[in-house]
Amino acid sequence: MTSVRDRAEDDRRELPVRPTDEDPLAAAASDLIGGPAGRWAMIGGHRWWNPLRLMVLVVIGMFALGMAQKASCYSSGWFQGSDVQYIHACYSDIPHLYAQRGFATDLVPYFDRIPDSVSGSSSIHYLEYPVLTGLFMEVASWFTPHGTAQHSAQIYWIVNSAMLMICAVVLVVCVSRTSRRRPWDGLFIALSPALALTATINWDLFAVALAAAGMMLWSRGRVVPAGVLIGLATAAKLYPVLLLAALFILCLRAGRMRQWSAAMSGALVAWLLVNLPVMLLAPNGWAQFYTFSRDRTTDYGSFWLIIMERTGNPLSGVNAYATALMLLLCAGIAALALYAPRRPRVGQIAFLVVAALVLCNKVYSPQYVLWLLPLAVLARPRWRDLLIWQGAEVLYFLGIWMRLAYVTGTKHHGLTADAYHLAVAAHLLGVLYLGALVVRDILLPEHDVLRQGGEDDPAGGVLDEADDVFVLGTLPHEPRHAA
C-alpha cells in the first residue's frame, strides 16, 4: 500500500513550483513586493490572475519599454544618416530595410531584383532573408501606407513591432507551458532586459517563437507537430535546425529514433512547403540568403574579429575555421550526452548546441541573444545565473553601438577597438559561464534544479522517464528516479 509519506510526496510533485521556494535570489527579491508567496498562492486556478496572464502582461510592458527606448531614433535618429542612432543605442534594421529592400516601392521579395542604388550594396541583389521571414516582412508592408519616406518607415517599424510583440507573448506562453509544474519559468523571458532591448532590432523573434512552440509540443509528446513548427522556424532562421540535432542524440540514447524520425519528417515537409515554391519559381532570389551567409566576411561580435584585428591576419579561410570548430564542439556535446551518468535533459543539450553556434559564428548581432533565451531558461532556470549572463549581453548590446558610433561618426565618440574587444569578451564569457554550469549539471545531476524534485525531464516528452539503450563508456549510470 502507498504510505502517507509517499502520497504526500506525490501531491507535492503535482503542485506548481514557486520560484520563491527554490531560488534564493527570487526569494530575496520578493521582499520588494511583500515577501515569498504563501501556501495558497498557487491554488485556485479559477482565479483570473494566474501566472500565465500575469506574465503576458509583464512581457507586454517590458516590450513597450523596449519600444520606448527606441524613441529618439523613431523621431529622427534613423533618418539623419549620422551616428545618433548608435550613440543612443536605438538602432533597428527594420526602418532602414523598408526602403533598402524594396518594400517601399512594392518590390516582390525574391522575385524582383533590388537595384544597387536602392540596396546600397553590390552584393545584395534580392532579399537576403529566409523565405518565412521574408513573408513576415512582406505582410508588415501590406499594412504600411505609402507616404513620405520617413513616415512610411516609422509606420513599418510600428507594424513590425506589433507583430513581434505577439511573438514575444507566444514565446512566454510556450516556455511557461513546456514544463507543467514550472509555469513561472516564463517570467525569466518576460522580465528579460535582453528581450526588451533587442526584440525590434530585426526579425529573429519570429523564428524564436516558432522554435519555442515546437519545443513545447515536443514536451507534450506531439512529435510530428513539434517537428512541423521546428521546420517552420528553420524556414525563418537557420539556427533552429540544431534543435533537431539535439533531439537526435538524446533519442539515440533513449531508443526513441522512431519518434525522432517522425519529428524530422514533419520538419522537412514543413520546410519544403515553405521553400519549394520560391526555390522553383525564383531560384536566384531564394539562394541569396545562403550565398550571402557563405560569402559574408568576419564581422562584429565574433572572436574571429578580435583575432583578425589584433593580429592583422585577414582570416580568409574563416568559413572553414568556424565550421571545423563548430563540428568539434558538436562532437564534444554528443560525447557528453552519451557518456553522462544520466541522460541530459532536452533543454540542456539544445542550449549547448545553439551556444556552440553563437560562439563559433563569424558574426554576432546583438539580437542573436534571443536564440539562446528560451533555451537558457529550459537548461538552467536560476535567476542569479541568468542575470549574470544577461548582464554580459547588455554590456555587449551597448558596446556594439558605441563601437559603431566611433567608426561612423566624425567626432569618434564611442569605443576604440581595444574597448570593443572587451565588450565582445564579456559576451563570450557570459555564454561560456552559463554553458559551463549546464555541463556541470549534466555531469553532476544532483546539481540540476529541475531534477531535485524527483523528475526526469519535464520538457522531454517521449524521452521523459525513458530507459537508456545506447550509452558509451563505462561510467556508472544512475537509475531514472532519484533516491
TrEMBL record:
Major localisation: membrane
Tell me which UniProt keywords the record has, alphabetically. Cell membrane, Membrane, Transferase, Transmembrane, Transmembrane helix
Q: List the membrane topology term(s).
A: Multi-pass membrane protein
**Entry-linked InterPro entries:** GT87 (IPR018584), UCP010361 (IPR016570)
**Coiled coil location:** none
Localization of this protein: Cell membrane
Chain spans, region Disordered: 1-20
Any stretches that span the bilayer, and where are they?
48-68, 155-175, 187-218, 224-250, 262-282, 318-339, 346-364, 387-407, 419-439
Q: Does the keyword Cell membrane apply?
A: yes
| Transferase is among the record's keywords | yes
- Describe the family membership recorded for this protein in Swiss-Prot or TrEMBL: Belongs to the glycosyltransferase 87 family.
The identity of this protein, by name, is Glycosyltransferase family 87 protein
